[in-house]
Amino acid sequence: MQITETSSEGLKRTLQVVVPAGEITKRFDDRLEQMKDRVQLKGFRKGKVPVAHLKQMYGRSVMAEVVQEAVRDSSNQALADKKMRPAMQPDLKLPEDEAEIERVLSGQADLSYSMSFEVLPPIPLTNFEDLKLEKFVADVDEESIDKAVSELVDRSVTFTTEEGRVSSTGDQVTADFVGKIDGEAFDGGTTEDAVIVLGRGNFIPGFEEGLTGVKAGDEKDITATFPADYPVAELAGKEAIFSVKVKEIGAPVRPEVDEEFAKSLGAESLDQLKEYLRERIGNEYAGVSRQKLKRDLLDQLEERHDFELPPSLVEAEFNGIWGQLEENLKRSGKTLADEGKTEEEARAEYRKLAERRVRLGLVIGEIAEKNELKITQDEMRRALMEQARRFPGQEKQVYEYYEKTPGALAELRAPIFEEKVVDFIVDKAKPIERKIPRQELFAKLDELDS
């Protein structure tokens, strides 16, 4: 086999590969010999069909398969011999002239084709010990625990119907209503026995306020406006009039925070409930701290690794992001203008995001390869089990889905792989631990979303 590099420009490469006709013929003859032992034809005993007869019957289709395999094997061998790592699947240009194709298929001519691709760039890795990282830690104070207990109480509130009660914030109102826009009823605007807890903000602005100060038997019209960002596009920003008939008013009954309350939630005692909450809140704080640490780490990796990106990878990543954006906009009925962006601005923003993802993906891959970081079978098994647990009663279908869908398995593997590399870098960088108030910790989380 001959391999010639015919073009090298930046990360772009073109190789010309020639597979000798003799090698193609040998593969062809070997395949026919293998077939002879398996094929059963009328008039011949098994394994006794002459090769010449097989060649006459199946020669062309077998040769086509042989050529296809030769292209696959030779292209892989060419990349290995040249020590080239393609960024994406190479673009193969096979013979198009019918006469040349016929000569190759008949074994009279060498198989010659070109393969064009972009190579992965060299990535000199930074010294991880030079990274300046901080790990923020917030203590779980009594105020946080008391707030968590109060939230549990709020979720445990029951309601008692009281005749003649006038509704106020915190009460439960049961009502029928019909909503209309410009005098016309709309989908989802008519409900019977709707249960509304005043003050929770589960309905559009103006609706709950309109139910304050009513009692059972009252009928009234309430004017409320759907938010501009309401997910149903045809309702967003529209003013509606709801004709409401109040059926019941329920007064809230808040449970006492005592041993019985704790036991009703599955704890053995109030102290045990608070310890559980302390642990849960602590894990929440640790999760926020981890997000901030990881973002800072990735920002520094991006800043410290400046190399040429394969355009094909960036384009593929951008197309994926843009496709998801278009799908989200279509589902919500919104446009880029509703988001306050022009298409040009959005494309520039998301291309920058695509470049960041590609750069960090290549850096993380290089770190993993250089340090032999791999995902173990146990780690993948645990991830699959965790995924299956999200679908009770459908565990078998979940496992079968991942077995049959390599792309889905790769998506499941990617974040595990990334976290493993992040853990490796954090261990090398030895971040400085700094205690901060919980309010400051959550402010840093808000910074990540901005």
TrEMBL record:
**Database matches in Pfam families:** FKBP_C (PF00254), Trigger_C (PF05698), Trigger_N (PF05697)
GO molecular function list = peptidyl-prolyl cis-trans isomerase activity; protein folding chaperone; ribosome binding
Q: Does the keyword Cytoplasm apply?
A: yes
Leading EC class: isomerase
Please classify the protein's predominant subcellular localization into one broad category. cytoplasm
Q: What biological processes does GO assign it?
A: 'de novo' cotranslational protein folding; cell division; protein transport; protein unfolding
Q: Which UniProt keywords apply?
A: Cell cycle, Cell division, Chaperone, Cytoplasm, Isomerase, Rotamase
State the PROSITE patterns in the record. FKBP_PPIASE
Q: What is its EC number?
A: 5.2.1.8
Q: Where is the PPIase FKBP-type domain?
A: 170-230
Chemical reaction(s) catalysed? [protein]-peptidylproline (omega=180) = [protein]-peptidylproline (omega=0)
The reply on keyword Cell division is yes
Q: Which domain of life is it from?
A: Bacteria
Its subcellular locations are: Cytoplasm
Q: Which InterPro entries match?
A: PPIase_dom_sf (IPR046357), PPIase_FKBP_dom (IPR001179), Trig_fac (IPR005215), Trigger_fac_C (IPR008880), Trigger_fac_C_sf (IPR037041), Trigger_fac_ribosome-bd_bac (IPR008881), Trigger_fac_ribosome-bd_sf (IPR036611), Trigger_fact/SurA_dom_sf (IPR027304)
| A GO CC term attached to the entry | cytoplasm
Q: Which PANTHER family match?
A: TRIGGER FACTOR CHAPERONE AND PEPTIDYL-PROLYL CIS/TRANS ISOMERASE, TRIGGER FACTOR-LIKE PROTEIN TIG, CHLOROPLASTIC
* Record's function text: Involved in protein export. Acts as a chaperone by maintaining the newly synthesized protein in an open conformation. Functions as a peptidyl-prolyl cis-trans isomerase.
Note on domains (UniProt): Consists of 3 domains; the N-terminus binds the ribosome, the middle domain has PPIase activity, while the C-terminus has intrinsic chaperone activity on its own.
What is the similarity comment for this entry? Answer: Belongs to the FKBP-type PPIase family. Tig subfamily.
Q: What is this protein called?
A: Trigger factor
List the taxonomic lineage: Bacteria, Pseudomonadati, Pseudomonadota, Alphaproteobacteria, Hyphomicrobiales
